[in-house]
């Protein structure tokens, strides 16, 4: 489980677990109102997969187009040959106001209707 602690509204953070080789999405999730989230996913592959954890957010971003994108490689010791994980990777607490060295930007490609608890005009869905 991860807690995102920052000043910005956390309902916008979008998370993906992705096979870095094929770019196939294993699971997609959103942070809760308090910044917590938990992801678990599985896929059927003939070869080992390289799992990448991606975070899309607009924290401390002003009015720039698109979203800030962070990528973290999940260590292979947390990838199991089963639909049920054997152990949990805890990425800790991230302050997303921080500008990370290898941070990227991703343009918005689709839009969804806003959720009731969301304060933005539209809830933006970012594709990996």
Protein architecture, described:
The chain has 128 residues and is mainly β. It has one domain (2-125): Sandwich (Immunoglobulin-like). Helix content is 0%, strand content 33%. The chain has no helices and ten strands. The strands form three sheets. It has a five-stranded antiparallel β-sheet, with no helix packed on it. Strands 4-1-7 form a three-stranded mixed β-sheet, with no helix packed on it. Strands 9-10 form a two-stranded antiparallel ribbon. A hairpin with a 5-residue loop joins strand 2 (14-19) and strand 3. It is globular, with a radius of gyration of 15 Å. The chain starts with a strand and ends with a strand.
CATH architecture group name: Sandwich
Query: Strands of the largest sheet, in order across it?
Result: 3-2-5-6-8
Class inferred from helices and paired strands:
mainly beta
Terminal CA distance reads 21 Å
The percent range for strand residues is 25-35%
**How many H/I helical runs?**
0
Provide the number of structural domains: 1
Cα-atom Rg, whole angstroms? 15 Å
Average predicted confidence as pLDDT: 68
What is CATH's topology name?
A: Immunoglobulin-like
N-to-C order of helices and strands: EEEEEEEEEE
Q: Could you describe the largest sheet, including whether it forms a barrel?
A: 5 strands, antiparallel
Please mark out the parts with pLDDT under 50 across 5 or more consecutive residues, or reply none.
Answer: 1-12, 109-128
Which CATH class? Mainly Beta
Fraction of residues in helices? Answer: under 10%
Subcellular location: Secreted
Keywords: Secreted, Signal
Pfam families: TTR-52 (PF01060)
Family: Belongs to the nematode transthyretin-like family.
